[in-house]
Design goal:
The protein is mainly alpha-helical. The protein has seven helices and three strands. The longest helix is centred in the C-terminal third of the chain and has 15 residues.
Length: 189
Amino acid sequence: MTISDAFREQARACEKLGSPFMARLMTLLADRLTPGTAVTNVIFNWPGDPLPRADSVPLRLAGALHALRLQKIALVDAYPPNDISDDALWSAVEITLNEQSDHVLGWLKSPPQTNEVRRAAAFLPALALLHARYSVPVALFELGASGGLNLRADRFRLDLPGLTLGPPDAEVTIRPEWSGPLPPSTLPE
């Protein structure tokens, strides 16, 4: 398999898991990434298996870009909630890969930790059910599965058809598919 194949496989996984922006980004990388820079030479000369189920080069690169966006160093005007063309997004990615190559190369050295917060779509309703029954404060403990992000679930907002749980100004909003009865409307402290 080629590097392009690795990015396409990751794009399919992102699409299937409900991450349309990352699917779009992975597709752009599959279509437009070429050797010739410090970052792309490392990617195209990857010594192991670049596939998502192995060394996961696509997620390593995605993590590097996302970290730069979160730190407001790069891609601020290119990533959601901004809606820009593929050409504009690609231009921003290319600039970032060149101007932030040391940062990106550092991220490529380590396997990604996805820090998936979507799993909060399951435990926030469970916490609401427990709160309705016991009405006591809750302390969450986690052993590395999400890098601690899900320990901040009280700062997430869960939007369900007909119900919203969590603070209205939350930086993380989760909108899962939902079937069945709605949970109680209050989360514990």
